[in-house]
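Example for tutorial group B:
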């Protein structure tokens, strides 16, 4: 904001302890026909912070002063990815896919701050208040290419590793993703196989927009465990 930069290093536990609202959703769908597959992936998160505080002083008999402050910050981020993969090699239970697609990023923030100063001398009171509010959003589209290794440990059970790079200055300056995990089928309904996914995911992006006081830079690496569902047609 206004040419300033802020460095943040926070774990999920840190964010959970300090936030007032935290909602996250992740979904994945894949449609495979032989060696060819289409896939989609969506991640959405909403984090809210609210702080209230009042400080009062009595500098002299019959004189009181109080300052009340209210701070609200709501941040929403959505990441949506669509693409296609093709199995270029298979050796026994081991398969190698190449993939390509696009990843869409959207960020939105709402910030508000209000402060009231109250001073009282006897029965005479004086109140002065100030309020500040800002909101904004940014979005961009990154092309990506990558690969995936899949190993079937048993029917309906699969280990996988995936990596991709993207951006290339067309959206962000550069982005990368790495993910490894274990997928297991546990139900089939009307031709759709429902699988559980357990793994670990790391996603990095370096995006810059504007210059000077209007410069926006987002250089982030987010990583952590993944627990979700996958639908395969």
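The residue assignment follows.
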């Amino acid at each position: 904001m206004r040419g300033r930069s802020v460095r943040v290093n926070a774990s999920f536990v840190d964010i959970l302890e300090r936030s007032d609202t935290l909602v996250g959703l992740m979904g994945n769908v894949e449609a495979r026909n032989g060696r060819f597959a289409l896939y989609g992936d969506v991640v959405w998160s909403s984090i809210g912070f609210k702080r209230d505080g009042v400080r009062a002083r009595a500098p002299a008999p019959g004189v009181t002063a109080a300052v009340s402050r209210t701070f609200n910050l709501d941040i929403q981020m959505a990441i949506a990815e669509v693409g296609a993969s093709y199995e270029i090699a298979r050796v026994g239970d081991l398969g190698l896919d190449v993939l390509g697609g696009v990843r869409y990023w959207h960020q939105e923030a709402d910030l508000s701050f209000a402060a009231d100063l109250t001073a009282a001398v006897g029965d005479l009171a004086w109140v002065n208040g100030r309020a500040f509010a800002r909101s904004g959003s940014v979005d961009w589209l990154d092309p990506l290419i990558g690969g995936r290794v899949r190993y079937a440990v048993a029917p309906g059970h699969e280990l996988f590793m995936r990596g991709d790079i993207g951006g290339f200055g067309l959206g962000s300056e550069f982005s990368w993703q790495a993910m490894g995990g274990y997928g297991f089928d546990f139900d089939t309904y009307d031709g759709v196989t429902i699988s559980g996914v357990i793994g670990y995911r790391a996603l990095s992006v370096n995006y810059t927009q504007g210059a000077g006081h209007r410069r926006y830079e987002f250089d982030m690496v987010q990583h952590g465990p993944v627990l979700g569902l996958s639908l395969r047609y």
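The longest helix spans residues 12-18. Compare this with the pattern of hydrophobic and polar residues in the output above.
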